[in-house]
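Hi team,

Filling in the usual template for the complex we talked about on Friday. All components are listed, including any nucleic acid strands or ligand strings, so the model treats them as one assembly.

SUBMITTER: L.P.
PURPOSE: interface mapping
COMPONENTS: three
RESIDUES: 981
SEQUENCES:
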Amino acid sequence: MPQQTTIRTLHTGVLALSLATFACQQAPSRNAARLRLSPPAPSAALDVTSPPPDQPVYATLTSPPHVPPATNRTRPARVVVNLTVKEVVQPMADGAQYTFWTFGGTVPGSFIRVRQGDLVEFHLQNDASSTMPHNIDLHAVTGPGGGAPASFTAPGHASTFSFKALSSGLFVYHCATAPVPLHVANGMYGMILVEPPEGLEPVEHEYYVMEGDFYTKGKYHDRGLQAFDMQKGIEARPTYVVFNGAEGSLLGDKALQAYVGDTVRIFFGVGGPNLTSSFHVIGEIFDRVHFEGGTAFQNNVQTTMVPAGGSAIVEFKVQVPGDYPIVDHSLFRAFNQGAVGMLNVKGPEDKLVYSGKQADALAKQEAAPPKDTGAVEPLAVSTLTTEERMAAGQQLFAGNCAACHQATGSGLPGTIPPLAGSDYLVKSGKDRVLSVALNGLTGPIKVNGNGYNSVMPAWNHLSNDELANIMTYVLGSWGNSGGDVSPADVARVRQGGAI
Amino acid sequence: MKIGSLLLCYGLLACTRPELTMASAHASATSTRAAALSAAPTQPAKPTARVQAPSVYDLPVALRDDSGAVRPLEAFRGHPVLVTMFYGSCPVACPLLTSDLKRLERQIPEPMRSDVRILMVSFDSTRDTPAALAQIKQERGLDATRWTLASADDDDARGLAGVLGVKYRKLDNGAFFHSSVIVLLDREGRPQARIEGADRDVTALLTTLTAPSI
Amino acid sequence: MLRKLGRMLAVACALTSGAAAAPRRPTAPAGMSRVGPGVYEPLYAAAPAERKVSVKVFFLDRRPVTNADFLGFVRTHPAWRRDRVKRLLADDGYLAHWQSDEALGSSVRAKTPVTHVSWFAAKAYCSARGARLPEEREWELAALASEATADGSNDPRWLARILSFYAQPASSPLHEVGAGKPNFWGLHDMHGLVWEWVYDFGASLVAADSREKGDGAQNRFCGASGADAQNPADYASFMRVAFRSSLQASFTTARLGFRCAADVQVTP
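RESULT (copied from the run log):
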C-alpha cells in the first residue's frame, strides 16, 4: 500500500538524517538572515498605475500543482478571468470518494496569476449541473466581500465583476456562499498570485500546493462515497488532512520533480476550513520564505506556519538528489491523515553536503578508543615524515576506518575484508588502492582466498593529506610491507577518476 | 452580535444584487446562461457576447396610479423610464429613494428631461390607495408631468419585482423590508442600467440616460 | 386586487357566520394535504417581532409537479411552450431537458419532478389549476416536519438525513416523485429531490433599510437571534435560503422545481 511505503520512507529519512549529522562537513554558508520589511522604491519601470489598454489579456489558468508562467508585464493590463464552478465526485483516498465542490474541476481550484495594478474582469460560471449557488471571495480584492456579493451565481448562470489588483502577494480565494464553512470544507478554495511590479525572480520550478482538512462520516480509508460530517467540522476533528484535495496527490508518479542545482518555489496555501499548517519539507531548509504570502521575507526557515485562509511562498535550492517529503509537521496529520507529498530530486550526488549512510555497524566498544576524540590537528602538507604520517594516519584510521576494518585491520569475516596481510592490497598497487578509498567499491572481490561483496563508501571528502596519512598507515601496519603515499599521489588519483 | 451570525451575514451578503460599477454597457440586470461555457480552466475563454435584456413590457402589469386610473405598465413605452418600487408608509428608505430620483431629475439636461418618466410602484396596494399616493406626490413636491406614483396588486407587484430584481418581504405588522433599486428602462422597456441601495451615486444612471443609444 | 378583495370577503363571511354553525372542515383539493397551522422560526428574523412567524392553515401539493403534469399544462397553454415563451419570463434554459417543445422524450421520465422552469412559469401553472405557489413561511413550516412529528428539528437522525441529501453528487439522476415515506403532513420529497420555488423567494434575504447602512445593517440584515450557526438544522435552512437568494424570477436550473399550494377557504 502506498501509505505504508510512504511511512517507511519517512522513517528512513529521519533515520538517515540522524546518522548523517556527525559525518558531514558544514555546507557552504547561505545568505545571512535578513528581514526586509518594505518593498523597494518604485521606479519608472514599475508601472502599476497607468490605465490598462482596452485590448484585454486572457489569463492562463492552471490546475494544481502547476503554475501559469510569469506575466512578464511592465504595465497594468485588463485581464479576463473565466472560472467555472463544478461539483464533482473524485477520489479522496484509495477506495474513498467525495463530492467536491470545485473551482475549475480541481481542489484546489485553478491558479490565477496577474500583476499588481491589473484590472481583472472576473467571469464566474456555475455549471448547470450544480446543486448549489456559489460565489467567490478573492483575498486579493479590495471591496465588499472580496467580490462575493457581486459574483453570487445560481446553477447554470454566470456573473461578472471587476476589481483592481491593488496589492501584490499570494492570496487565497474561496467560495463565500452560506453556509461558508461547508463550501470551503467541500474544497472550494484556490489561489491568486498578484505579482509585484518587478515580477518574481525566475526559478527552475514553480509549484502550487494547498492544504485542506476534510470531514467525513466514515473513518479514514473507509471505502465508497463519503458524506460530509458537519459535527466533526464544527469540532475541527478532520478525517483527512491532505494536499491538493486528495491523499497521494503529490506521491508516486505525481510527486513534484526537480534536478540538483534547481531552485524550487512552492506557492503554498491553506484552504482550511479549520486548520493551520506547519509547512515543512523534510531534508530541506527554505532559503527564503515570504511568510503569509506578503512582501517581507525571512531566510533559512525549517518550518513555516500558514494559517487557514493564508499562504506562504517558499523557495529553496536543491543540492542533493533524493526524496524529500512535503509535510504538515503536525505529524499525526502527515502520518495518519494524509498530509504528505513528495519532491523527487534527481542528479549527481554531493557527498560533501550529504554523504548518505557511511557506516552501518554494530556499536562495538572493544576497539581501542582513538587517542584523540577531537578533530584531527591540521598538519602542514607535504612536509611530514613517514613516521609523522603513520601517527596521523593511525588517528584518522581509528576515526574513519576502524569501525569496519577494525583497529587490528582484520575486518569482519564474511563481511568486511581485512587490510592486514591483504593480498588484494598488494596486487592492486598504490593507485588502485587510493582509487578505492576515494571512490568507494561495490561488487564481489576476493581477499586472501575469501569472497566479499559489500559496499565501501567513497571517502573523497577527506583531504589529500588525510588520505595520504591513512594510506601510509595502512600500508605500513600489521605486517604489511610498507609504502609511502603522498598528498600529491592522492591528488593525482582523485583527478584521474576511478581506476 | 454573535461571531457566528457575523460570519454568516458575510456569507449571505451574497444575496444582494451586484451594484453597477462599470459603465452601463455591462447590463447586470440579466445574466447569461452558462451552458455553452464549458471550456477547461486552462484555456482562455472568449468574451461572452452581451445579449440585449428583454423588455419588461412583456409582463402584463396593471397599475392604479395616483389619479385613480388603471393603466398597463406598457403605457410608458416610448419614453425612457426610471422605475423603482416602494411603499408609502416607508419611513426612511423610500424618501431617500425619492430624493435620489429628484437629484437625478435635476441633472438631466433638456430636452431629455421632458421626455423621461419617473415611475414609483408600491407593493402595498392596501394602504397606498390613489388618494394616499396623491398626497405623497404633493408632499414631496413631485412634478406631475413626469412622476407617476402607482400601486399594483400582490401578484403583479411580485411579477414586476421579479423582472426588476427587487426583493421585498411583507412583515406581519404591515411594514415591508425591501431592497432599494432604481432601474432605467429604454423606450422599449429594456433595462439599461440599475443602481441598488438608497442614497447612492446616480452618475451611472445619468450617463446612460444621456447616451444616444437610449 | 379583485382576488384580494374576494379573500377579504370570504374571511368576513366566515367570521360573521362562525357563531351560527361550526364550519365544515374543508376537504383538500385532489393531490393536496392540509398543513398547519403552526409557528415557524425563520432563519433570519426580519425584525424582533418576526422571530416567530405564525402560519395559517393551508393546502399543499403532496408531491412536486411532474414533467407529465407540466407537459399537460404546456399543451393547453401554448404561450408557455419552450419555443414561444417570452424571454423575460423564462431564460434560455427553460425546459431544456425536454426532447422537443411538446414532448418529453425517452430520457425524461414522466413522473420525475419538472425542472428548468422559472418562477413565472411555475406561478402560471399553479394559477391555471386555481392554486398558487406556497409562500416561503408555508413551505418552511411544511418542510420542518419529520415523518413522525410536525417539528423534526429536535430529531438528530432526521436532521442527519437532511444534511446527507446535500452530500449527494450533482450527477445523480432525479428519482420519481412520491417515493419514500411521507412526512407528518403527508407530503413527499420536501427534502432531497429538487429545490422548490416559493411565491416570495425574493424575500429570502432583503437588503437592509438604508438607514442601517452602518453598524446596524448587519444586525437587521441577519437577525440578532434567529441564526445559530451551531445548530445543524440551520445548515439545511441556510442552504435553502442561500439558494433562493441566488435566484431571479426568470431563472431556470436543473434542480429547481415546484409544487402548488392553495388557501383554505372556510365556507359557511
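MY TAKE: The two ends of chain B are 46 Å apart (CA to CA). DSSP finds six helices and nine strands in chain B.

Thanks, L.
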